[in-house]
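User: Here's a structure from my thesis project, written as structure tokens. My advisor, Dr. K., wants to see whether a designed sequence matches the one we expressed. Can you design one independently, without my sequence as a hint?
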């Protein structure tokens, strides 16, 4: 394990000490937790128990300290400029926060957020930070093309929009000493995507009825006071103590913009847990200092929740608190689960993978360009749209538990859901098309097979389906066919054999692409074995993550290929038996 030089260790400890002081000054309650270097992982800092504790609240962060679209629009220095960009549609809510992080980092010690930003990672293990040579370790995977495309898009966004905005802001306060480079933007983008949480904020927090601190403040208001919408941000290095502008610039009318602009991350949720009506909860994405230092464990027993206007749980109104469900010993790291995510998502967003990840998945897709070149592509696209089907399908690892080659044969909740979905594709109007005898062992969701049936259709089959749907519509006084009607007609005409053949071809093509890019799964396994035997001690964490990720993709490709080939074989046998009977 790499160790840090004593001087660097001391520098890091000093930064963490300033962070903790900054958090406490800004009314974060660490209670029985603390933040320090995580020795067992490459994650940098983590949250730890300071003492033995039973179940309960470990840390509390006021939501007023969170970096959200609302707080950025009310920034005491640049709030008006951010608001102008937002109103003109130049930035959406995510880019608004990324731009804010970028500007504050360039401002350095003059930023109110300096003590927080100084301890955040300077670089990342995500593929976006790979060199060209490192990226070749992902050749053939979905992440390889996704990373190249994302970098291209980010560079264009930086050059055409972000850089001019940021330099204009910083020049206006005289802190722009040099040209802003792309890496600063990439850093801000990575900070957002690795740390942002989706926060269920009370409606009264986002749109308060009254403001506790206004725009025009006097010297008395700069002194610390009880928590309110005008939370005071304190920079320990500069001694600055500046109240936020309150929420007077954000009214109910602004919610239309915030809730509908582009790919918005602020949305009112009717079905949110505990929601009495649509105005109770608004989901807002943002960074929550303190709690955002928690690292991931899929079995993590701690989690965060949001306290309400009166603070009934924590005593701190409008706050996020970290809670554990099990006793902790001194120096235990407090871990939370980021959700049931496959290695592809974990690697791309957070820069790490999980060996033998139970939530891993394999994506199969049919190229849209191929459908465009199909002489009947337009008709097929219409059939796909009527069934709400896509050209991309995620095949989860746990689907294999109920497959033809599974030794487990358990009926998981996911498997039961899949069985319910399969029934849609087994109805036969004529009674000739029989459901496969192996239906309950089919690992592929009905949505996948339904889309493949359409894509693989021949001209005569398209005509037959059109006639069936037209007859059905006439029998119902010209009522248009439903989604299930279309699915049943396609199933009646086509069956599964050509769909499974196409699926097999797609998986074979993907597996060949993976192996041509980085070798076989066996060669990947040998690389890891040499690393574990310390025969390859120079292997970086990035390289190790690449090998684990791509090996998992090759394993899943082979497993799903075996299932598809066997299903195709059984389908041909049964369909042939029906035709000859």
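Assistant: Designed independently from the structure alone:
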């Amino acid at each position: 394990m790499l160790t840090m030089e004593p001087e660097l260790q001391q520098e890091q400890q000093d930064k963490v000490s300033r962070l903790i002081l900054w958090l406490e000054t800004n009314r974060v309650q660490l209670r029985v937790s603390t933040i320090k270097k995580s020795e067992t992982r490459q994650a940098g800092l983590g949250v730890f128990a300071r003492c033995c504790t039973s179940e309960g609240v470990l840390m509390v962060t006021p939501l007023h300290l969170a970096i959200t679209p609302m707080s950025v629009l009310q920034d005491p220095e640049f709030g008006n400029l951010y608001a102008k960009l937002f109103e003109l549609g130049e930035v959406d809510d995510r880019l608004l926060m990324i731009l804010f992080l970028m500007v504050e980092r360039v401002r350095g010690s003059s930023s109110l957020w300096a003590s927080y930003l100084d301890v955040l990672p300077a670089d990342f293990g995500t593929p976006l930070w790979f060199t060209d040579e490192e990226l070749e370790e992902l050749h053939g995977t979905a992440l390889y093309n996704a990373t190249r495309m994302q970098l291209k898009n980010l560079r264009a966004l930086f050059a055409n929009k972000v850089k001019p905005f940021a330099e204009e802001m910083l020049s206006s306060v005289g802190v722009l000493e040099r040209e802003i480079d792309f890496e600063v933007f990439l850093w801000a983008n990575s900070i957002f995507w690795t740390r942002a949480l989706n926060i269920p904020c009370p409606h009264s927090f986002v749109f308060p009825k009254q403001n506790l601190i206004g725009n025009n403040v006097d010297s008395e208001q700069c002194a610390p006071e009880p928590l309110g919408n005008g939370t005071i941000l304190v920079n320990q290095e500069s001694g600055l103590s500046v109240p936020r502008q309150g929420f007077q610039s954000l009214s109910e009318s602004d919610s239309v913009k915030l809730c509908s602009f582009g790919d918005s991350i602020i949305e009112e949720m009717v079905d949110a847990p505990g929601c009495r009506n649509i105005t109770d909860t608004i989901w807002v994405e943002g960074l929550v200092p303190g709690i955002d230092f928690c690292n991931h464990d899929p079995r993590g027993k701690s989690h965060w929740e949001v306290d309400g206007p009166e603070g009934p749980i924590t005593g701190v109104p409008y706050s996020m608190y970290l809670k554990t469900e099990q006793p902790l010993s001194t120096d235990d790291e407090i871990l939370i689960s980021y959700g049931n995510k496959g290695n592809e998502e974990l690697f791309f967003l957070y820069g790490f993978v999980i060996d033998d990840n139970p939530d891993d998945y394999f994506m199969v897709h049919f190229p849209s360009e191929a459908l465009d070149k199909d002489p009947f592509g337009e008709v097929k696209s219409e059939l796909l749209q009527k069934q709400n089907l896509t050209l991309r399908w995620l095949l989860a690892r746990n689907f294999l538990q109920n497959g033809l080659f599974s030794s487990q044969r358990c009926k998981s909740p996911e498997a039961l859901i899949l069985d319910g979905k399969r029934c849609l594709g087994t109805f036969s109007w004529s009674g000739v098309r029989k459901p496969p005898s192996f239906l309950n062992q089919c690992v592929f969701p009905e949505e996948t097979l339904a889309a493949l049936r359409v894509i693989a259709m021949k001209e005569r089959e398209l005509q037959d389906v059109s006639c069936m749907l037209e007859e059905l519509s006439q029998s119902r006084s010209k009522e248009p066919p439903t989604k299930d009607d279309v699915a049943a007609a396609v199933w009646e005409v086509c069956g599964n054999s050509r769909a499974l053949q196409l699926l097999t071809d797609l998986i074979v093509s993907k597996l060949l692409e993976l192996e041509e890019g980085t070798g076989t799964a066996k060669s990947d396994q040998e690389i890891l074995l040499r690393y574990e035997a310390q025969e390859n001690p120079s292997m970086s964490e990035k390289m190790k993550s690449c090998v684990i990720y791509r090996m998992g993709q090759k394993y899943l490709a082979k497993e799903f290929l075996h299932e598809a080939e066997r299903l195709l074989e059984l389908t041909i046998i049964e369909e042939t038996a029906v035709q000859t009977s």
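When you compare it with your expressed construct, this may help: The first strand starts at residue 33 and ends at 37.
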